Amino acid sequence: MVFSSLEFIYLFLPPVLIGYLVLRHWGWENGIIWWLTIASLVFYAWWTPVYLPLLLGSVVVNYGFHRVLRQIRDRFILIAGIAFNLALIAVFKYADFFIGNANLISGSEIPLLHLVLPLAISFFTFQQISFLIDTYKGDISECDFPRYMLFVVFFPQLIAGPIVMQKETIPQFRLPVFKNKLVLNLAVGSTLFAIGLFKKIVLADGIAPYANSVFNLAETTSGVPFEAAWIGALAYTFQLYFDFSGYCDMALGLARLFGIRLPVNFNSPYKATSISDFWRRWHITLSHFLRDYLYIPLGGNRTGPIRRYANLMITMLLGGLWHGASWTFVFWGGLHGAYLAINHGWSALAEKGYIPAILPRPVGNILSRGVTLLAVVVAWVFFRAESFSGASNILAGMTGLSTVYEPGLWDSMIFGTAPVWAAMICLAAIVFLLPNSIEFTERYNPVLGLKKLVAQRPSEGFLPVRWKPTAGWAAAVSVLFGVALVQTYRLAEMTEFIYFNF
User: What is the pLDDT of residue 460?
Assistant: First the structure.
């Protein structure tokens, strides 16, 4: 079930919210926990009930490992628990990828399994791996099964994150949190949900056809014209931004309806001044997971520059593979690993005075933002393309090196492109000039970790627009929601969020 679907908006969310409000009125803490858990399982099973036992089995087995680790803090038990979770991902997500590559290398004909990828398997396995590691470290106090289960299956964050840590959400599953500031929670939550729905349905899905047309044709033709290549690359850059941003806003808003605050997962990444800064802003919880549970255990930056760059590359390659069983995802991760190595190397040289600061600071910031965004756009081409040939066709077109293409196939794409460019200018204005949803509602504490974000944020670069729970803002947000809802009725078919595929 997709957050932006009519089934979710009309059939699922209202009864779940009403049941919560009734149980909240009665002050039944365990009832709220089980109600949200059952609702989350229904939410997950709506797509296909066949994988619900897989999710339940994963929860039960991991909770068993947790209980054993609480009694016997043994490294072998931890490794066994991690291996169990990784085996689930390996079988259901990567089996055909590994078999296909083995067949290609050895010339064998091992039959593919053709397993359907279970929804959210990457997210709920990573979340439970972190729980087991924290248990082993002694960072988890006693956690009963109902709260653990809700921690894993809570529907606002189940399908595509954020990847939450136990210390962030389990302490919130208490009656004082559920009963706190009901009207404000409903106002903030519905505002974030409406903004996210507008981003997804109107902005992301509105620009998506241009990206899809270019990338689909790039897979079947020998070349891509210059303008078409840039339209495709930039359209996908904005589509992915508003699709994932919209999902994150909706997840935050849905959780807040029930009094729960999730960690920040998206913070204007296209405003980043470096690749390191980009990964502090894009899919923040995944970045933290890879840093804390992969990069640092590999040695991080404590083992010298060469090992540091090797650790960065390994982390990003695996991060790319996490996104999908395809070499284009692996290459995308490796490309960002190379970006990060260059970024850290440049910073090290600058700190030692080998690279003098020539440009004025404002000019340098603009230049660094431009270079960072260009690097990100180039990497997105591999992220979106279905093959390396399709990606190379797009990149050749973007550089003006593609001279062999069939004009007839591209006539509809490169004829009358002024409206497309105007739409992308408007999207760029939203990205770079307006505050993001967290900044927009920051006076009412929309996420965990807000103080850290505010402390890191420069004071310039956005309009001082802030939401308040007033009638005027309610009307404005209602207009956004109404426009998005009308557009939902007009869609020929419902489109999933891009990160649902991971």
Answer: 43
Residue 263's DSSP bridge partners are 448
Radius of gyration of the chain (CA): 23
CA distance 16 to 21: 9
Residue 104 pLDDT > 80: yes
Q: Which of 93, 83, 156, 52 is nearest to 323 (CA)?
A: 93
Better-predicted residue by pLDDT, 462 or 89? 89
> Do residue 412 and residue 321 come from a single domain?
yes
Q: Do 80 and 138 fall into the same domain?
A: yes
- The answer to whether residue 366 is domain-embedded is yes
- The verdict on whether 323 is a catalytic residue reads yes
Residue 1 in domain: no
Of the two residues 452 and 498, the one the predictor is more confident about is 498
Q: Whole-structure pTM over 0.85, yes or no?
A: yes
Residue 34 maps to a domain = yes
Instruction: Identify the domain boundary among 156, 181, 206.
Output: 181
Query: Where residue 457 falls among pLDDT bands split at 50, 70, 90?
Result: low
Enclosing domain of residue 83: 6-181
134 plus 212 within the same structural domain: no
Report pLDDT digits (tens) over 314-362. 999 999 999 988 999 999 999 999 999 999 888 887 777 777 777 777 7
Both tokens assigned to 132: 């087991």
**Residue that terminates a domain, selected from 133, 160, 181:** 181
Say how far apart CA 463 and CA 435 lie, in whole Å: 6
| Residue in 210, 219, 216 with CA at minimum distance from that of residue 390 | 219
Co-location of 169 and 195 in the same domain: no
- Average pLDDT for the chain: 90
Burial class (CB in 10 A: 0-12, 13-18, 19+), 432: middle
pLDDT value of position 157: 93
With a CB cutoff of 8 Å and minimum separation 6, the contacts of 460 are none
Closest alpha carbon to 422 in 247, 214, 198, 210 = 210
Domain total of the chain? 2
Average pLDDT over residues 202-214: 94
Phi–psi pair at 216, nearest 5 degrees: -65, -45
Catalytic residue chosen out of the listed positions 66, 283, 288, 323: 323
Q: Are residues 194 and 325 in the same domain?
A: yes
Phi-psi region of 145 (alpha: psi -120 to 50; beta: other; left: phi over 0): alpha
Take residue 431 and report the two structure tokens written for it: 């990205």
Residues 304 and 411 in one domain: yes
In terms of domains, do 266 and 170 share one?
no
- Quick one: 206 and 159 in the same domain? no
